[in-house]
Request: fold
Amino acid sequence: MNTKYWSADEALADLNEAAAALAAGGIVAFPTETVYGLGGDAGNTEAVRRIFAAKGRPSDNPLIVHVEDASAALRLAKQVSDVERRLMETFWPGPLTLVLPVREGAVSPLVTAGLDTVAVRVPAHETARRLIAASGRPIAAPSANRSGRPSPTLAAHVREDLDGRIDGLLDGGPTGVGLESTVVQAAGDRIHILRPGGVTREMLQQAVGERVSVFGSDSGTGEAAAPQEHAPRSPGVKYAHYAPKGELLLVAGNPAAMIAAVQAQVTEAKARGLRVGVLASSEHAPRYEADAVLDCGSRSEPELAAQSLYALLRECDDRGLDFIVAEGYEERGIGAALMNRLRKAAGGRVLHV
Ligand code: TXA
Ligand code: MG
Reply:
């Protein structure tokens, strides 16, 4: 298949062509404020099947449906609680995905992987919103990467992974947040974070007030976790994710103790003949000696590390690194989502200092 390339800053004609392709059952990648998504008509089972095939995604991992506004979301849900309404009003458009009871027949059963819930969000990216509006349909869109690869934050990443496998790519430049949306599910007076992201736990708690408890997704990280038997899980969490080809070790804890610990790991791996890289904060980067030191921005601005993480993980592969040591960040604000993705990239290899 020939993939068509469109630019989001060019004439409206490009956007309209991309929207027409979606309406006709095509699958098209587009920018959002988090990462690029691979979209298809959520009501068209054949389009949705092609999304799974292009990504190599397991069919039991459901997709997020992207809509223009909250009223379009209400049409997909069987019912919506006051807490859920409050979240929509506060965070949409924006990087928050709500898992809602699905209205029968609202989307293809492939989208929900047969669950009785549907994940919905209203993206804040102007191009995404215009594209969805012009297509006139709810758009199912997972991140536009091959399964197991880091999510794409540039059109070039999508091209790398999916060229020739999709109908088109709408290039809107770099995405904003750099990590995927926060996925939450409300149950009575509880909100469960199924996947941390751009909307932080602190922001959620503030929006709903004290009568509702917000539970984090990662246990053993200092976040309050819900009792296991009550905690809903996202089907996606069981899959390995974001792994670079080389082995990644996450060094977490006290920043002052970090430099010595990271360098010791680098030196030891180099002695084993490995090609070694470091993902470092700007403050620490000049202190390391390794084959590659990739700067994640200042430690005081974890937003920068979030924005660049996926591009840097791809760069680790491009540079042929066998072993990567990554500095950890404080688990606060966007730091919680950042550490969640770093732990996944590390496949559980975490050194606490
Ligand atoms: O920022 C984002 O969310 C991006 C952009 C493109 O919007 N999309 C994205 O989609 O990250 P994807 O497919 O890579 O991740 C969707 C996550 C998966 O972990 C999936 O298991 C979960 O959402 N999910 C989808 N539907 C669900 C449902 N009904 N119940 C629980 N989890 C669900
Ligand atoms: Mg994904």
Notes: Residues 255-271 form the longest helix (17 residues).
